[in-house]
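Subject: Predicted fold for 3-hydroxyisobutyryl-CoA hydrolase, 294 residues

User T.R. writes:
Posting the sequence so we have a shared reference for the thread.
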Amino acid sequence: MATVETSVRDGVAHLVLNRASALNALDTDTVLAMRAALDQWRDDPGVRAVVVRSGTPRAFCAGGDIRAIREAALRGDSAATTRFFREEYALNQEIAEYPKPYLALIDGVAMGGGLGISVHGAVRVATERSVFAMPETLIGFYPDIGASFFLPRLGGALGRYLGLTGARLSGADAVTAGLATQLRVLRRSARVHRRPGHGRTRRRARQIRPYRATVRPGRHRRPHRRRVRARHPVRGARPPPGGRFGMGGDDARLPRGRVTAEPPADRRAAAPGRARHPRRMPPAGSGGGVPAGP
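User M.O. replies:
I've generated the structure tokens; pasting them so everyone works from the same file.
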């Protein structure tokens, strides 16, 4: 079974990590497969962007395959270990310099090499299940995969703290720190898709789609708007660019100023004689009365 599955849909190339039994740990074959796919899509006009994600919800990428490195060391095959790290670092640099948008969907554990194939990209999407860490110091190693470049740029002493302690960050923490660019709550979106009637809503949308072109939104409101504008002319309104409001009339040429609505003339004539509410009447003997109308 291939360790990396590739496909292109609607101009977007997909890299799916497919080593679920090893939590998508990177070995030499996986790194070479990713580099070959990126090289193929680099100059392909049918590919506008690249998305890398995991084929299992357990982890995005647990880093380098420590078991394979240990077995190579026990065999005395230092050339295999050297080749793995050389190809892995070349992959990280290629991702950082890739000419097309590189998007990483980091759902699950992303440690060590998992950050190497994600944080160097343009877009890093974390979820509520994401776990970020650089735990190399816990096994007597130092933070690699370009960590000396991105850790000092996290701000303050956070990068030094993460590099020395191997502390873990959640998806929200990673967004705040700058390791991820955005957070997506997959659990909430899954609930939305499981709501009763969701499929029925999609069917209704497909049924009315052919008729949407024959209906103009807001057309039924136009006669009502004309009646309202004729009954309550707007005075002093500033017209939009083009000099018209879209409803016609002479109001587009009115002077600028505060927007006020005038009642009809018959109401203005009757305004001075209107009775006021008892609570708003002036106190007796104060000389006040009903104010004159406009």
